[in-house]
Model the fold of this input.
Amino acid sequence: MFAIAMTEPGTGSDLANIATTAKLSADGTHYVLDGAKTFITGGALADRVLVVCRTSAFDATNRRAGLSILVVDTTSEGFAVGRKLDKIGLKASDTAELSFSSVRVPVEDRLGEEGAGFSYLTHNLAQERLTIAIGASATAAAAVQHALAYTKERDVFGKPVASFQNTKFVLAECSADVEAIRQFVDRALELHNAGELTVPDAARVKLFATETAGRVIDKCLQLHGGYGYVLEYPIARLYADTRVSRIYGGTSEVMKTIIAKDLGL
Ligand SMILES: Cc1cc2nc3c(=O)[nH]c(=O)nc-3n(C[C@H](O)[C@H](O)[C@H](O)COP(=O)(O)OP(=O)(O)OC[C@H]3O[C@@H](n4cnc5c(N)ncnc54)[C@H](O)[C@@H]3O)c2cc1C
Done:
């Protein structure tokens, strides 16, 4: 199992600020890796961790230079798993702190060219963002299905919740939102399959899908009344699990900065 370790206690959105260092040995055979990572999905169970680290000193005139990606064997001396973070959702996936104390990494285990890490990340994060948008599409659609089923069964004031005009209007809005997400995600998938999904377009689809899914799931939870707040109901788990989609893979605010730059702003 693999994990990818970009985020550090001191930096998340600003990846160029990564402080974990990898120094090449005098004989050029290996790197010596030192630093700490946090929020790493699958980090506690991974066999290999792709670690984004600094292989040359920070250069304020070119902040993106000097980052590389090393593939670290988690049985290496000096590698340690710290706390598993206690999240509000996504309970089935571990999210861990990792530390690296003078971990020896053979030069052959560097992924790609030295110093090109930032551009590899920029390129590949587009696919990760599309994947997150696909998840948002599925969870929003599921939320509407759960709300439809629940409101038909639950009687209040002697009639099903589904019979109130408010319920019909809310679910109609949610249904339109779900369809809009699906169309946008399908279009992005087509572009991805054609090798044409740009970084700004991936940011657009992630922003729209995750923000819209968040609103849809919140409205569907509301239709469940108090039961929507109880984890034994699927809508509560969807609410908790989906919240992070607006944060990981790059926050909504970071998506907006990418899109704004694409607009020439
Ligand atoms: C469950 C989970 C799993 C994760 N898995 C991984 C993983 O596998 N690997 C990994 O490397 N990371 C992972 N992360 C980390 C995740 O990618 C970061 O949390 C995320 O990128 C935000 O970084 P941060 O938490 O340091 O927030 P910060 O960067 O400190 O941001 C704080 C706030 O400032 C805002 N902000 C930042 N920059 C700007 C700006 N320019 N303009 C306006 N607002 C701004 C942000 O949007 C946010 O609202 C995971 C996180 C979670 C919660």
Notes: The radius of gyration is 22 Å. The pocket of flavin-adenine dinucleotide is lined by residues 3-7, 12-13, 39-41, 87, 90, 95, 244, 247-248, 250-251, 253-254, 257 (CB under 6 Å). The longest strand covers residues 30-41.
